[in-house]
TrEMBL record:
Protein source organism: Amycolatopsis magusensis
Domain CBS: 7-64, 69-124
Keywords annotated in UniProt: CBS domain
Designated name of the protein: CBS domain-containing protein
PROSITE patterns assigned to the protein according to its UniProt record, in alphabetical order: CBS
Length: 183
C-alpha cells in the first residue's frame, strides 16, 4: 500500500506567520496531533504539533508558528510504501508526516491514517454499538454483538418486547447498519 492510498487530502495547513493561538485552535477543532506549515508556494517548511503548542508562550501576543514549529521536517512522496512510513513514525516518534509531490504539499499521513486500513468497517460498527448498549444497560454488558457486512446480530436476554424494540432502534442509529437481528 502506498502513501497516496491512505493520505488525508486536502491537507489542512498553516503558514509560518500564523499566530500560535489560531494554529492551536485549528489542531483542536480538527482533532489533529500536528499539521504541516507551508510557505506562500505551498512548500512544506515545518510541522506544528500539540507539543509545539504546549511549548509556546501564549502570553506573547506576537507568538507565531514559525517560532515553535519543528523544522526541518520529514516528508514523503505519494509513492512511499506505508510500511516504511509506519517504521519512520515509530522510530522518530512522529505524529504526522506531510506528503509532497513535485515540491508541493499534496496531503498528510497521521497515525490514524495508518491504522484505518487495519480496521474493518464492521469492527467500527461493533465498537459503536457496544458503546450505545453499554450506556443503555448501565455498563452491565448484557448483550453480545456480531456484525458481518453491516448486518448486526445482538444476542442476550431481553426484558420484554419493548426492550427488544429499543435495542433494535439503537442498532439502527449506527452508521453502516443495514439490518438488525436479535437472538
Amino acid at each position: 500500500m502506498l502513501a497516496r492510498e491512505i493520505m488525508t487530502r486536502p491537507a489542512v495547513a498553516v503558514s509560518p506567520g500564523t499566530p500560535v493561538r489560531e494554529a492551536t485552535a485549528m489542531l483542536i477543532e480538527h482533532g489533529f496531533a500536528g499539521m504541516p506549515v507551508v510557505n506562500e508556494d505551498e512548500q512544506v517548511v515545518g510541522v506544528f504539533t500539540e507539543a509545539d503548542a504546549l511549548r509556546a508562550d501564549f502570553g506573547a501576543a506576537t507568538a507565531t508558528v514559525d517560532a515553535v514549529m519543528a523544522k526541518p521536517v520529514e516528508v514523503v512522496s505519494p509513492d512511499t510504501d506505508v510500511a516504511e512510513i509506519a517504521r519512520h513514525m515509530l522510530i522518530d516518534r512522529l505524529r504526522c508526516i506531510p506528503v509532497v509531490e513535485e515540491g508541493v504539499l499534496a496531503g498528510v499521513i497521521s497515525r490514524r491514517d495508518l491504522l484505518r486500513p487495519l480496521v474493518r468497517h464492521d469492527d467500527a460498527i461493533v465498537a459503536h454499538l457496544h458503546a450505545l448498549l453499554d450506556d443503555y444497560s448501565g455498563h452491565r454488558k448484557r448483550w453480545s454483538v456480531d456484525v458481518v457486512g453491516g448486518v448486526v446480530s445482538v444476542g442476550g436476554g431481553f426484558a420484554d418486547a419493548a426492550e427488544r424494540q429499543t435495542i433494535r432502534a439503537l442498532a439502527h442509529t449506527v452508521p453502516g447498519v443495514s439490518q438488525v437481528e436479535l437472538h
